[in-house]
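User: Sequence in, structure out. Go.
Assistant: Echoing your sequence, followed by the structure tokens.
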Amino acid sequence: DKSGKRQFETSMYARLEKLGLGHKKDDPDSLTPEEIERFCVLDIDPSTITWKRVTDCNDKYLRQVEIGCSPSEYSKRQEKQLSRESNFAITVSSEIMAILALATDLKDLRTRLGKMICCYSKKGVPLTADDFGITGALTVLMMDALPPNTMQTLEGTPALVHAGPFANIAHGNSSIIADKIGLKLVGKDGYVLTEAGFGADMGGEKFFNIKSYYSGLKPDCAVIVCSIRALKLHSCEAPKVVAGQALSKEYTEENVALVEKGCANLIAHIQNVRKHGVQVVVGINRFATDTDAEHAVVKRIAEQNGAHAAVVAEHFAKGGAGAVDLGKAVMSACKEGSNFKLLYDAKNDSIKTKISKIVTEVYGGSGVVYSDKAEAIIKKYEEDPEIRNLPICMSKTQYSLSDDPKKLGAPKGFNITVKDIYVSAGAGFLVASLGEINFIPGL
């Protein structure tokens, strides 16, 4: 200050607390030389840097790159080039996107940003944004992104568009803040529809056990969207759909038998939602090639297996008028009420127990196999109460209930393989990786 007295910036307090020096935050001069060294020297292990650069450009050549090759990145002190292998990711796969979607207010946003782990020290200590003293700057950069975007449909229906975390890497849901603003605007007798990406095994399960876990909001109804074509694919008897090629006749001509067999997949999704105590309405996305007989079998099977209703929706062709019946069915289901419950106890269940419950109760699998790498990481995480108490975010293919995209329908008796596991400490979940997931699409 003007009198010459030194002070710590408030952004430095978190690191002081982490080092057990919080009692000295008001007097920097009281730190011993050893404490100053501990505070200033992060001792980064470059091989543990996990933070990726992000871009909105789809470029498969950025999946594996070498950075730090310019002359400006040459260290005279170490007499070497500070280069290393790294990779880019698409912007929406960044942990910051997941944080934006899960933050409940500005203070919570700052806290979550500060917990993000960027790398580890050579002693294995996680180094966070708080350790780097950049949390304040990150928060300032993200402040204008915190309020949702207010938009409207072509028919004038208001919509809050906010956040877009990947549903196969992160939790795949729009923001908690947008949901809360929506609920405030519609009042106690109104309805707010919010999206969960992919199926009930992906965005749906994560909506319940991650988003609802942090928001405290309890859903009354879930809409499961299906199509006759998709159900035929899940019969496991229809020809494979190939991008750029015309659909085979099985998809464009009436085939009730294929639809009925494919409904095994729909039943699994209905049961996954019902396991969480939430009402289900099935929306059948009508295509011009659909027939009434095909719709009838879907309605019958859905309602026999726990759906409150199954309704044909034609909003793509007719706009809002084509979704009136679907809207009425949702309102009816909400009036019946739900008995929402989480699938697992995030704070008391072990990491493996949480993963096992998702695999056996949601995916329909029989067990979990862990790689040596995943076993070692889980053992380490179980010793840290702040990490072991986090909910699980499964990173897997969206094409199957299993971890094999070729297993369509409702496979049973399979084992899931957890190849890797890492913590998104800021977002507040553990990511269990079940296969090779590309963090950046390729063109």
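User: And one key feature?
Assistant: The chain is about 35% helix and 15% strand.
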